[in-house]
Amino acid sequence: MLSRIFILLLFIQFGAAGVQAQRLSDVNAIGWFGSFNTIHLSKHYSLWLEGHWRRDNVITDWQQLMIRTGIQRHFKNGLSTMAGYAYARTYPYGDYPAGPHPIPEHRIFEQFMWNDAIERVGLNHRVRLEQRFLGKINQTAPEYEVLDWTYANRVRYQLRATVPLNNKNLIDDTWYIAGFDEIFIGFGKNVNQNVFDQNRVGLVAGYQLTKKLRAEGGYFNQTVQQGGLVSGREVFQYNHGLLLSLYLGFFPFEG
């Protein structure tokens, strides 16, 4: 029995090594800077607006510009749903870019969030479904030109754990640490190479001044499988760097 297990482990090891040899690896230092804004319209509804400035070489070059907005419905016990629209513009970066021109993307999304806790550790779960329209760019032309749009589906799941440090709960004047992991899975007829699309892992420290303002920063790691092949080989990006986020809450109808 032990000999069979040993042979199986050797097979898995050499098989994984063979797959790695067929891949192209691209390592980049990135900086992600984001603003997350909630406008509370009532007890049950709010507007959501976020902007992301994602940079390559930490800050000097563009990686991606992202704007996302939606309307959120709040239920009891931390449950909420949201539907909205996002626009992304992904720039050429790294050793194996798709071409010399940036790629635009329009998204429609729906998401479901809920909270949980293990003693003083707060857990947040988020499931997001995205309908994506990716621009097909004429990468051989000197001028930027969108030839067509490709439709694709993607589902995302994020688990975030937050630990308050100087208070039992995340209230005003609270320092905290948080970690998260989010996996992206593509599906449908245009999924191409990347059924596994990407995975994001982060560890941050933050401070909540009030329910209207908190900020956090820390380390971020992003693993991306590109949709297209380069010389018949899959391309995996291993991006890591700085993550800075600002969260603002607006209560125009409070009181």
Task: Write a concise keyword list for the protein shown above.
single chain; 8% helix; Porin; 255 residues; mainly beta
Tell me the layout of helices and strands.
Blueprint: H1 2-21, E1 23-40, E2 45-56, E3 61-74, E4 80-90, E5 103-118, E6 121-137, E7 146-164, E8 174-187, E9 196-210, E10 213-225, E11 234-250
Structure in words:
This protein has 255 residues and is mostly beta strands. It has one domain (29-250): Porin. Helix content is 8%, strand content 65%. The protein has one helix at residues 2-21; strands at 23-40, 45-56, 61-74, 80-90, 103-118, 121-137, 146-164, 174-187, 196-210, 213-225, 234-250. It has an 11-stranded mixed beta barrel. β9 (196-210) and β10 form a beta hairpin. The chain is globular and about 55 Å long.
What's the number of extended β-strand segments? 11
Low-confidence stretches: 5-10, 12-19
Order of helices and strands: HEEEEEEEEEEE
Total number of distinct structural domains: 1
* Alpha plus pi helix count: 1
